[in-house]
Amino acid sequence: MGSGRRNTYRESRGNGTLVVLLDSRRPEALHLPDSLLAALTHFGIPYRLHDLARGSLAADALLPHRAVVIAQEHLGDAVGAADLRALLQAVQAGLGLINFDHDLRRYGTAYREALGLVPHGVEAVSRVTTVSTAHFLTWTREPGAGVTFQRPAPMTTIRPVGTGDAAGLLVADEAPVLVTRQIGRGRVVQWLLSPKVWLNDVLGHARGLDDVFWKGIVWAARKPFVMKAMPPFVRLRLDDCKGHWQDARDLVFVDVLNAAGHVPNLGVCMRAVQSSGAQRLKHLFDAGRADISPHSLQPDVSLFYGDDEGEYSTARLAELMREMDDRLHTWGIRPSRVLSDHNHEWSERAIPFLLERGITFKMNVTCPGETWAGVHVDWQPAPYGQIDYVFDTIPGHPEFFVAFNHFPTLAAARTTLPGGRFLFDRDGGFGESKWDFLNGLTRSTLGRNDLPAMARRYATHMRLGLDSLFFGGAITHSHFLRDLAPAELEEVLRQAETLMPRHPKTYVSYDHIAEYARSKVETHLAAVEVDAHGHVRVTLVGRATVPLQLYVFRDVDDGVEHRFEWIEAGDAPRHVAFSG
Q1: Residue in 549, 469, 485 with CA at minimum distance from that of residue 516
Q2: 149 near 202, Cβ under 8 Å?
Q3: What DSSP string runs through 6-68?
């Protein structure tokens, strides 16, 4: 991998793939990398491209595949009557169809009649709302929750003919955002919202609609259907910037987190930890109940960048690394491999020291030498060019892999500068969902602990990461957490769980998530073949340092369920066969 939106979108072989239709002669094809291919790559969905500029469709060629996907706006003009007949014949015989192109008028009467839809007009919409969670597409969504766009997107309104399974699941101004259909043996998802919605200047991916995006593909696709997405991993990250974690009693909250399943990443203020606190950290480390990350040297003083006098020299960093090593050795703790740099600041001079200690993952996107209040390079990390949901390597330093999920208030709290740079202009985000799930909700700010609000924010942060197939996670800091008694923290977690009861969760360490994510990114489903009996053969290429899990989906009544199939770690091509 390189750095900065440099995904090389790789097609796959075999009939276990999607067929993505495009017309390279038309300018809307230039949107496909951002609106579709980045998402398919992130979700690990195998696909191949069919360019209508180079040849028409044939039903017998389409039929063996899992589904056809249309995400190029106004593509209907390029899909001739013969192509549409071939496509509809294949759907009748069991092929899935997912059409993200809302412009129904360009697809001809036969297509619209097959779907039972009559276009009425085109409106500009800025918000969609979840009405029902009865369908697989919206199963984990929150009824009544809305998603607001940065700018309006076109949407086709319809006069429905007949019934549609998903009409009314998502609405904009009470009009359906998409509909589902069963045509013969095939399933269809027709979006009525423009595919422009998947561009970052409108809404973008990992912004609240990705679950419907990928679940629509999964629901419509012929089964068995395989994808190499992140499992539903969950982690909780906590930083002690102020030196509040000193004695064992300061770490009692970890028992509450462990009881809820969490293996938290604890960012430790090194010089603040006293003897009993060190013994407690040692116990948690030995039991696999927490990752321990050196975070700051002393209260609000960086360990990996500098202090009030400026950036550390190499000699000074060497002294600090020896001190860090001595403390960790005395405590009997091996540090987390995920760098927890205070204020997201780390020096270029620190890199050799980090590599020596096996610290090769990052939990933010700042480049070495940048300060929180200074100028940042907008390197548009993969997969979506955003700074808050990232699986990518640091520009110029491919040995450091970023595994980051942070609520979009992080991206909103910045202002752009000329030359692809930006400034952070707010502290801690703003509005209802700051990026710390306790910030502004504790007695130090409110005079009371607002436990329901904490639970809602926690669930909001967790839900977005899981639904977008990154990982579930939230962050807080010791100076907020210290306001909560253990029983109050327990209640927050309990209430949060009631807000997302349909989300499967696998609680693991941040170290595991980061290594898994890098292995997922550095591997590719080169081929997926499915025979007439539903037996699947997969070829995986690339390097994985941990075993990977493949989602294998099958239809159950009107819904979908999945199981996992494992692929061993390694760097040679792996061939795995299993029954779908």
Answers
A1: 549
A2: yes
A3: -------BSTTSEEEEE-TTSGGGGGHIIIIIHHHHHHT--EEEEETTS----HHHHTTSSEE
Q: Which amino acid is at 33?
A: P
Cα(119)–Cα(499) distance, rounded to whole angstroms?
Answer: 37
CA distance 568 to 547: 5
Residue pair 172/193 in contact by the 8 Å Cβ criterion:
yes
Write down the architecture of domain 233-512 according to CATH.
Answer: Alpha-Beta Barrel (3.20)
CA dihedral 382, 383, 386, 390 (to 10 degrees): -70
Q: Where are the domains of the chain?
A: 18-227, 233-512
Q: Which residues contact 156 (CB under 8 A, 6 or more apart)?
A: 102, 103, 104, 105, 119, 120, 121, 122, 192
| Amino acid sitting at position 414 | R
Q: Coil, helix or strand for 153?
A: strand
Which CATH architecture describes the domain 18-227?
3-Layer(aba) Sandwich (3.40)
**CATH topology of 18-227 equal to that of 233-512?**
no
User: Per residue of the chain (580 residues), what is the pLDDT tens digit?
Assistant: 334 555 578 999 999 999 999 999 999 999 999 999 999 999 999 999 999 999 888 878 888 999 999 999 999 999 988 889 999 999 999 999 999 999 999 998 999 999 999 999 999 999 999 999 999 999 999 999 999 999 999 999 998 654 555 567 999 999 999 999 999 999 999 999 999 999 999 999 999 999 999 999 999 999 999 999 999 999 999 999 999 999 999 999 999 999 999 999 999 999 999 999 999 999 999 999 999 999 999 999 999 999 999 999 999 999 999 999 999 999 999 999 999 999 999 999 999 999 999 999 999 999 999 999 999 999 999 999 999 999 999 999 999 999 999 888 777 788 899 999 999 876 666 667 678 999 999 999 999 999 999 999 999 999 999 999 999 999 999 999 999 999 999 999 999 999 999 999 999 999 999 999 999 999 999 999 999 999 999 999 999 999 999 999 999 988 899 999 999 999 999 999 999 8
Three-class DSSP category at 245: coil
